[in-house]
Input
Amino acid sequence: MKTSKRQTNPEATAKAQEPIPQEQPAQDAPLPDTAHNEALQALETRLSEAETQRDEYLTMAQRVQADFDNFRRRNQSVRAEAFEDGAASFIKTILPVVDNLERALDAESSDEALCSGVKLVQKQLLEALEKRGVTVIDRVGQPFDPRLEDAVTQGTPEEGEPGTVAQVFLKGYQLGDQVLRHAMVKVIVA
Output
């Protein structure tokens, strides 16, 4: 029987017994306490600055949104007022047409078809004005109101109670609370 002897290299044996150094990434390497604290403090400072900036941006965005909402409301209000002013202006230009239709109906005419047509036009025009919110100021027998009427002549106490409207010469019109045209009236004086 043969026995084999292994030849051993003493240097190789010593190297085999040494621990193999492993490379660790720089981020995992433990930092000394001061360097670690400085890095942590720098991160906390940056986080605090970022949060402050975020809060400023949020406040600014909220302010801009509120300003825009206010602008939109003002714009709608201005647009509605402009529409109402335009409508009132247009209605004022139509009022003489209403007056002339009334005069045409008051005039004597033997043409029944013409009278019927004028009545129909007047009715449609008054209905359109009524749908738009226009009301007639016709206050015969009621106390004179200078906000609604213009006194153009004076009546005598025999015509009625002093301070009241005796006769309307020209009807007035109002759109809601806005007087489009004051009524021209005769007021009884004492």
The chain has three helices and six strands.
